[in-house]
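step 4 of 6: structure.
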Amino acid sequence: MTAQQAAVRIVDGDRRALARAASWIEAQTAAGRELLKAVFPQTGRARLIGITGPPGAGKSTLVDQLTKTIRARGERVGIVAADPSSPFTRGAILGDRIRMQDHHADPDVFIRSMATRGKMGGLAAATLELALLLDAAGFNFVLIETVGVGQDEIEIARLADVTVLVLVPGMGDDVQAIKAGTMEIADVFAVNKADLPGANRLEDEIRNMQSLASEEGRREAAPLRRVVASEGQGIDELLQVIEHVFAKRSREQMRTEAWRFRLREILQDRLAAALPESELNEHAMRIAAKIEDPYTAVDAILAGLLK
Amino acid sequence: MTAQQAAVRIVDGDRRALARAASWIEAQTAAGRELLKAVFPQTGRARLIGITGPPGAGKSTLVDQLTKTIRARGERVGIVAADPSSPFTRGAILGDRIRMQDHHADPDVFIRSMATRGKMGGLAAATLELALLLDAAGFNFVLIETVGVGQDEIEIARLADVTVLVLVPGMGDDVQAIKAGTMEIADVFAVNKADLPGANRLEDEIRNMQSLASEEGRREAAPLRRVVASEGQGIDELLQVIEHVFAKRSREQMRTEAWRFRLREILQDRLAAALPESELNEHAMRIAAKIEDPYTAVDAILAGLLK
């Protein structure tokens, strides 16, 4: 199957071609890039929804429930779980996927975990590409779930059109810190496990931070919905608010901004891959031996790399 | 005060010169770079210890207790708190610093929070630079505490000679996920709040993952110590194991490896800063309008940037 053939079959709804192409993309092969170029004109119809948040927030359960709700409307759902590059994750992936087993037999749900080896580089690009592929394949929603909690996963969630930040009550005494790096990325807040004590307090904290941010003129407060994902409570309302956020933006401007951000992510991946390993190693030895200082080394490496 | 004057004074133990130079470094000014070049030959004597872990793990309390223990031996401690770039962090910084107020009057303890604005880029470089400055200023230990929990903060902790991963029992149902991305970076595990139920289970989980990793021949199991940081329990033992790990490595090889990693981080910062904004924007518009596909755009931008 060539990339061109795959492109035709995928747009046609061939699930086996889709699964195979997803593997090309995960492996970041030339065939995957060919394919994406071919199907790119067919993209732009799906809603790409990022689901992110700290561990224990119940992201997988929420994705599961959103999938049920979207399916009940008769729309098709693609799910991409972006997973940090670690052999330790196997258990986590398995656990997540077991929870999703209800949907495995459903031809209108496609689930794939993305992982990379070694340095994180490549995961953002591969995740976005798989989301675009699912878009081209006619899935109405693509849910991009981050399994880890690193800055990279947060950035991956931001590759979506709308980013949902999932938080839960009672996350420990420096919950302030985790919110710090992630609050701004939320287009929608989902307060999960809202039946637990502390939900009011969490909501108050979010509101306080939002009013602080709005005083400084930074942005409009993101809407917040309470859910109990494990019981399916509040899911309809959450989906409505996600769609509302999606709809009220200027579509063209949103797409341009999304692409500016996406290009930046892909370029950073590519630049990291372009760093000359052996040169880096030589400089590292010289610095460790105090023959050279790190600034001189960095300048020398950049001079050899950049125009 | 010129950079050269500052360098002399700092190596001499002038605290005001040090505070001023720390501000240069935080602002990433040319004077800061000059200064670092000048003091670089004086570095390499301090032990740089990274303290990282999820929110609620008690990292600040642990740093506070380690500081007390090191001071009781008569050694000097520098602390760099690497904080994600967010206006929301103000509260967190304040909270952390209040906990450290016992040490504020101590001339042999120097505390500084590092933050950057906008994109995370720059925080890793600035944190490392401040740690090197404190090294040159004669602090025997530099504790690099990450306040946030993103991948970037984990990488920042890894800039240290020895990285301590702080975990606590009962972190929620996908604790697997947070461990996944971070387990490998631990040179030492600190199981904090070890008086809580679940400490045994957490220790078992860590051991299981370690034996899995060791079967695959990846690395020697990192030592683990239980502490109750809030009570000062187990801190001596933790410090001993940190020093043991530090001592048993080949110093030269360790430094080379550390510098290879550090150079990579600094270079990625610099490359991200070199991306041409207006060109990125133009391509983003073309992609949004479907005149161009993202691969063609990325290739064009890289062709203009790289040699």
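step 5 of 6: annotate
 - Chain A touches chain B through 90 residues (CB under 8 Å).
 - Strands of chain A lie at 47-52, 77-83, 109-115, 141-146, 162-167, 188-191, 224-226.
step 6 of 6: archive
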